[in-house]
Specification:
two-stranded antiparallel sheet; mainly beta; single chain; 10 strands; eight-stranded antiparallel β-sheet
């Protein structure tokens, strides 16, 4: 299986403000105070855009109903990152062994109906979306802000330093597990064994 995913979100807007109007009965910006000595009016505009583009593939192999392998790969690009770091590749794989179907396990068929050993390993790319440490839309590109006019001239100040070296965070996940089902003449018992949390290593 192969697929492609594209996400594009764009928003823009404009705002205006003023103060010291002689009355609040009329919602009119023209009534706010704005002269050579006291200027209370202001306007602003904004635009935000972010895009995500991903390609992915999945391959499942099943041999004789006993040996199962699953391979997945994603190639993601995110506009919040910049330069050569915008794209990352994240492979993952898992294997499973249906041990109860082996010839040497037939003698346990009267009490064991299912036994599967499995393990998975993969890279999970993220940039902190959904956490308190998420990268802002334009954070890595640096930022400039307009300063108060002086002598009729507006200046600009760098308010954020660019960080083109920041890249995807790639936690490695290793997850072994065992699934079994035990049966007696009057009942059936299932048990799943695996670590309570994903084991993570090699965080960058």
């Amino acid at each position: 299986m192969a697929g492609f995913e594209y996400f594009d979100a764009y928003s823009k807007g404009v705002s205006a403000s003023g103060r010291l109007a002689p009355t609040d009965d009329f919602m009119d910006l023209g009534l706010t105070l704005n002269n050579a000595l006291t200027q209370t009016r202001g306007t602003d505009s904004y635009h935000n855009r972010e895009r995500i583009m991903s390609g992915f593939g999945n391959l499942i192999y099943d041999y004789d109903g006993k040996y199962i392998a699953n391979f997945t790969v994603r190639h993601d690009g995110y506009s919040r990152l910049i330069g050569d770091n915008q794209y990352g590749t994240f492979p993952a794989g898992s294997v499973g062994w249906m041990a109860h179907k082996e010839e040497f396990m037939k003698g346990a068929g009267n009490w064991l109906s299912f036994l599967k050993l499995r393990a998975s390993y993969g890279l999970n790319g993220n940039i902190g979306i959904g956490t308190d440490n998420a990268i802002g839309l334009y954070e890595l590109q640096g930022a400039y802000g307009a300063q108060s006019p002086y002598n009729g001239i507006t200046g600009y100040l760098q308010t954020g330093i660019a960080n083109p070296e920041l890249t995807w965070r790639n936690p490695e996940r290793l997850k072994p597990g065992l699934t079994s089902a035990f049966q007696k003449p009057s009942d059936r018992f299932h048990r799943i064994l695996q670590p309570p949390d994903d084991r993570q290593a090699g965080l960058h």
